[in-house]
Amino acid sequence: MNNNRRRNYRSRPQKNNFRRRAVSNSSNGHNNFNNGNVNFNRNGSMNNIFNVEKTMLKFQQLAKDAQSNGDPVLAQNYLQHADHYLRRFNELSEKKVNDVGKTNLSEKSTSDTEALDKNAS
What is the pLDDT along the chain (121 residues), one digit of tens a residue? Predict the structure, then answer.
């Protein structure tokens, strides 16, 4: 055997860090549907209100540019994308307002409870 000769094939370690689809086990009574779009968000981009707003504005500007270049089909496509991000932006805004309201209510109820405890003693 010639040790100086380079091998044509080098074995590579198996990559175990790639994502596989979870196996749906419906025997436990739960209907788990494996939707490939569930993990579409990258780096939480669809959950960050600032990124959603920036993307919405980008598509609105692309629609204006397409309209000025005389391509109404592409402009409509961009407007539909912008509309999607506008709906997502409204959802996140509403969620943020509700979360702030819940926080304020819990802080108020905590302070009311403390005030009642001071009055009782």
Answer: 566 776 677 666 666 665 555 655 555 555 555 555 544 445 557 889 999 999 999 999 999 999 999 999 999 999 999 999 999 999 999 999 998 888 777 777 666 666 666 666 6
Is the whole-model pTM more than 0.70? no
For residue 120 the two structure tokens come to 């009782």
Q: Show the domain range for 92.
A: 44-120
Residue 112 within any structural domain of the chain: yes
Residue 90 lies in a domain: yes
Q: What share of the chain is helix, strand, coil (3-state, %, to 5)?
A: 60, 0, 40
Residue 88 lies in a domain: yes
Is 102 within a domain?
yes
What is the number of domains present in the chain? 1
- Cα distance between residue 52 and residue 50, in whole Å: 5
